Amino acid sequence: MSDARDKQLAIVDGGGANIASLTFALARLGVSGELTTDAGRIRAARRVILPGVGAAKDAMTRLRASGLDAVIPELTQPVLGICLGLQLLFEASAEEDAQCLGILPGRAVKFVADAEHAVPHMGWNRVQPTPGSKLLADLPAGAQFYFVHSYAVPVTDFTTGRCEYGHDFSAVVEKNNFLATQFHPERSGTNGARVLQNFLEL
Q1: Active-site choice (83, 95, 121, 174)
Q2: Given the residues 163, 164, 186, 201, the one annotated as active site
């Protein structure tokens, strides 16, 4: 599906370690994206991806340094948050009491470890979709995706895919043009490729 529109995909450069795998996953779909912190390029892009690995407070510090904490909430094109990128769309994170972008109401909280649930939550897990989910379209209930995270957002009114790890949490959220996955679609095989394709077709 490579065409001129593909060059209008901006990937927010937050210093995350998952950029290479995301770039390869997009390339397998025939798409290339521009890694950038330039506000003008991000505003002009047809689609924007906000990936993230690491700590919420550090990520917000980087976004504020480039002025993107003010830019991202004002975007009107489709925006996809991935992993930490999902948590950053919410108001806050319990991780170092970080204040986030505030696009969605809610707060990420840390998993509580027990005999059956190590922290971080790492590996494959099933996601149950809400009917009408844009990102999970054409995927069966219980499709598996790859997770790596210690913090998660509880189920909210904007949850369109939920996962269970000790308790239910938001695996996919969607609010208008802002969509996000707690799992890593770029590391989730054919199911993850379908999620990325669904986003690119919005």
Answers
A1: 83
A2: 186
